[in-house]
Amino acid sequence: MSDANLTYNQQYLTVGQGEAAREIAYIARSQPGQTAGPTLVWLSGYRSDMSGSKAVELDSFAAENGLACLRLDYSGHGLSGGKFTDGTISRWLEEALAVILHAAPESILVVGSSMGGWIALRLAQELAKRQDGPKLAGMVLIAPAPDFTSDLIEPNLTKKEKASLAERGYFEERSAYSPEPNIYTRTLMEDGRDNSVLNGIIETGCPVHILQGMKDPDVPYQHAMKLVEHLPADDVVLTFVRDGDHRLSRPQDIERILAAVKGLIR
């Protein structure tokens, strides 16, 4: 089913106060007469948005299977307001949590891609502290990149990039997915350390299915193995895609992702 065949209720939610306020775009498609099953929640990766192929396919899957679906654009991404360079894990997590609490589903199954996988894990930690949030029914993590700032970027910084971070507060890196460079700020790096999850046991309280390409140039497959070590209390399935890249957005990859979602709903 294509994006054009679905009817959406696109809305905006103001998150933050004063100068920190930003308009967050989200699409909540309710399922009339839904009696069972979690709401599927899509969390995008760094510089990705809710109109990407995996997000749209997840929404189509939800529609075909009688489930509600929720997806959002972080500030500085897609249709949302705010500056991309103001973005941090804390800020994007705050937005995801605000949209979910505003939509108020009873239970959710979170699908997080790349950085969205990190935000999904932090979301589980934040929901566990609350009485008013939805029940977390499951988690599908696609090439998850928890702690990518400290574990994957900082160890590989060049002298030039370190100097740029120190002098200008950011550095730029050529993107394989866009003509515009990736921008990493000092604030993002520092905030990443505050949101680290690979420094102890992560308890999501739900089953987790991780899908990881073995030819991923951005998040090495060993990173997924490291994550599994930090999830000892959860029912975790790790699927390696031998010829898979970082995006995992080929038809056969999307099929695997949707099969993982279906498996957790059952």
Offer a few descriptive terms.
single chain, 266 residues, alpha/beta, Rossmann fold, two-stranded antiparallel ribbon, 8 helices, 10 strands, 34% helix, disordered N terminus
Explain what this protein looks like in three dimensions:
It is built from eight helices and ten strands. The chain has 266 residues and is of the alpha/beta class. It has a domain of 152 residues: 3-Layer(aba) Sandwich (Rossmann fold). A hairpin with an 8-residue loop joins strand 7 and strand 8.
Short précis:
The chain has 266 residues and is α/β, with parallel strands linked by helices.
Structural class: alpha/beta
Largest sheet, in brief, is: 8 strands, mixed
- Write down the overall geometry: globular
CATH structural fold name of one domain: Rossmann fold
GO molecular function, one term: palmitoyl-(protein) hydrolase activity
EC number: 3.1.1.93, 3.1.2.22
Enzyme class: hydrolase
Catalytic activity: S-hexadecanoyl-L-cysteinyl-[protein] + H2O = L-cysteinyl-[protein] + hexadecanoate + H(+); mycophenolic acid O-acyl-beta-D-glucuronide + H2O = mycophenolate + D-glucuronate + H(+)
